[in-house]
């Protein structure tokens, strides 16, 4: 994992963990995994699951994931035309 990813994960984790300081780190990670509907063992938890869950934890249910939002098209016809290069970006 690159340094910037480690720093970003620590920042995201710190912000949320400070809201529940009575929980130890392992229990907090387990709680995040359960919230993200991760069903495997904690040691199998992928850092990407933590990134996306921490980024989206306090957002609305219908809010788009940041990495997907940039490519999202409200209307299917527009998406097809843009994908075929018939519309400008």
The total domain count is 1
Tell me the total number of β-strands: 0
Low-confidence stretches: none
- Beta-strand percent range: under 5%
Give the proportion of residues in helices.
40-55%
Structural class: mainly alpha
Task: Please identify, by name, the CATH architecture.
Answer: Orthogonal Bundle
Which fold does the CATH topology refer to?
A: Conserved Hypothetical Protein Ylqf, Chain: A, domain 2
How far apart are the termini? 32 Å
Largest sheet report: none
Number of helices, counting only DSSP H or I runs of 4 residues or more:
5
CATH class: Mainly Alpha
Describe the structure.
This protein is mostly helical and 89 residues long. It has a single domain, classed as Conserved Hypothetical Protein Ylqf, Chain: A, domain 2, CATH 1.10.1580. It has 5 helices and no strands. It has helices at 3-17, 25-35, 47-56, 66-69, 76-83. The longest helix is centred in the first third of the chain and has 15 residues, at 3-17. The chain is elongated. InterPro entries: DUF1040, YihD_sf. This is DUF1040 family protein.
């Amino acid at each position: 994992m690159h340094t910037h990813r480690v720093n970003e994960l620590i920042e995201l984790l710190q912000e949320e963990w400070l809201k529940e300081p009575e929980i130890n780190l392992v229990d907090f990670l387990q709680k995040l995994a359960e919230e993200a509907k991760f069903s495997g063992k904690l040691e199998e938890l992928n850092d990407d699951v933590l990134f996306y869950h921490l980024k989206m934890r306090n957002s609305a249910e219908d809010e788009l994931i940041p990495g997907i939002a940039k490519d999202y098209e409200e209307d299917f016809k527009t998406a097809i035309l843009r994908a075929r290069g018939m519309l400008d970006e």
